Amino acid sequence: MVRSALFTGLIALTLGACQHSATAAPATLADETPATIDALKSALGSAINRANIDLGAGDLRGASSVTVLPPRLTEHETRSPATPIVFNLFVRNGDCYAVQDGSEAEIPLPDVPCKPA
After folding, report:
1. Distance in angstroms (rounded) separating the CA atoms of residues 44 and 84
2. What is the tens place of the pLDDT at every residue in 55-83?
3. Does the CA dihedral 41-46-50-56 come out positive or negative?
4. Which of 21, 86, 29 lies closest to 55, judged by CA?
5. C-alpha span between 101 and 90 (Å, rounded)
6. CB 30 within 8 A of CB 61
7. pLDDT tier at 5, thresholds 50, 70, 90
8. How many Å separate Cα 58 from the centre of its chain?
9. Are 90 and 103 in contact, with CB atoms under 8 Å apart?
10. Which residues pair with 26 in a beta bridge?
């Protein structure tokens, strides 16, 4: 009887905790306006310490990941070992953020409207 009461109490606490935890969900951009793209590029560029970045091709409103292309070659370079950097978009409590593949660091995207994927 005591076990039953403890078990029931534990289940109730577990379910209650799930309702209050803020879980992240994969996200996509809510729009592709120039202001949104500029805000996204600015935040991701700051995260990788690059002033100017180019995004890879794709439908930003349909995909939950964004690719940042490597820097362009200069006139004296013929090849580069640089590879594209992939960021996954997430939304939690209405706030959009990005996480670089292979990292757990969250990059806030305060001026980027996004929606759950």
Report:
1. 13
2. 998 888 889 999 999 988 888 888 888 89
3. negative
4. 86
5. 13
6. yes
7. very low
8. 16
9. no
10. 90
Question: Pairing between strand 106-108 and 114-116?
Answer: unpaired
Phi, psi of 39 (to 5 degrees): -65, -40
The answer to whether 99 and 29 have CB atoms below 8 angstroms apart is: no
**Which tokens in the block code for residue 46?**
């700051």
Average pLDDT over residues 100-114: 95
Which residues have C-beta within 8 Å of that of residue 116, sequence separation ≥ 6? Answer: 25, 26, 27, 91
- Residues with Cβ within 8 Å of 101's Cβ and at least 6 positions away in sequence, in order, are 85, 86, 87, 88
